[in-house]
Specification:
The complex is a heterodimer of chains A (112) and B (115).
Chain A: E1 3-6, E2 11-14, E3 19-21, E4 23-26, E5 32-38, E6 44-50, E7 56-59, E8 62-65, E9 75-77, E10 86-93, E11 101-102, E12 106-111
Parallel strand pairs in A: 2-12
Antiparallel strand pairs in A: 1-4, 3-9, 5-6, 5-10, 7-8, 8-9, 10-11, 10-12
Chain B: E1 5-7, E2 10-13, E3 19-24, E4 31-37, E5 43-50, E6 53-56, E7 65-68, E8 75-79, E9 88-95, E10 105-106, E11 110-114
Parallel strand pairs in B: 2-11
Antiparallel strand pairs in B: 1-3, 3-8, 4-5, 4-9, 5-6, 7-8, 9-10, 9-11
The chains are: A mainly beta (112), B mainly beta (115).
Chain lengths: 112, 115
């Protein structure tokens, strides 16, 4: 079956530091890959996505590249802000499937 | 266009009672998904429904849990005879179609506490 493994947290960074959150996956087909962000007490918001190999998803300074050869979709941001503090989830969904499979989440805290 | 709506946002039930969670998908979306998030964990898929049909219930516990998405009205996730282990956040998502090219839009969740 499908699975997603995320870098364990929590991650604490100073403002303007570089961020990497690792994500690797196992899938039987050719999934689409997603990063979601969850702020305290709220639901998930889509941050970015990539639907095929070598695609790069980007949004609000965050980027992730779909690497089929390493089955990875690592999230990066060049300069984090305090407002980026949240829980980040990596997820995948098969081309013809309804359900998404999520990683366990990585909590990011950015200090001023 | 209103987002996915869930109610109630918070629900407290005593052990043995029934919990009923509602989800109204985004306008134009006929695909609904329910996920459960236990404390400090990721989201786990429970069930995928289209109007009047259960498409995939592979993540639903075999007993006490049921879901429906009637022709009219919201999708309902029903938990009978709740136990403390049912305490979690339950999220609903909707999409206009199935498959990876369609984004799933998530509601704010219902936080169930069983006392």
């Amino acid at each position: 079956g499908n699975s997603v493994t995320q870098m364990e947290g929590p991650v604490t960074l100073s403002e303007e530091a570089f961020l990497t959150i690792n994500c690797t996956y196992t899938a039987t087909g050719y999934p689409s890959l997603f990063w979601y962000v969850q702020y305290p007490g709220e639901g998930l918001q889509l941050l970015l996505k990539a639907t095929k190999a070598d695609d790069k998803g980007s949004n609000k300074g965050f980027e992730a590249t779909y690497r089929k050869e390493t089955t990875s979709f690592h999230l990066e941001k060049g300069s984090v802000q305090v407002s980026d503090s949240a829980v980040y989830f990596c997820a995948l969904r098969d081309t013809n499937a309804g359900k998404s499979t999520f990683g366990d989440g990585t909590t990011l805290t950015v200090k001023p | 266009n209103a987002g996915v709506m869930q109610n109630p946002r918070h629900l407290v039930r005593r052990r043995g009672q029934e919990a009923r969670l509602r989800c109204s998908p985004m306008k134009g979306h006929s695909h609904v998904y329910w996920y459960r998030q236990l404390p400090e964990e990721g989201l786990k898929f429970m069930v995928y429904l289209q109007k009047e049909n259960i498409i995939d219930e592979s993540g639903m516990p075999k007993e006490r849990f049921s879901a429906e998405f009637p022709k009219e009205g919201p999708s309902i996730l029903r938990i009978q005879q709740v136990v403390r282990g049912d305490s979690a956040a339950y999220f609903c998502a909707s999409s206009p179609g199935t498959g990876g090219i369609y984004e799933q839009y998530f509601g704010p969740g219902t936080r169930l506490t069983v006392t």
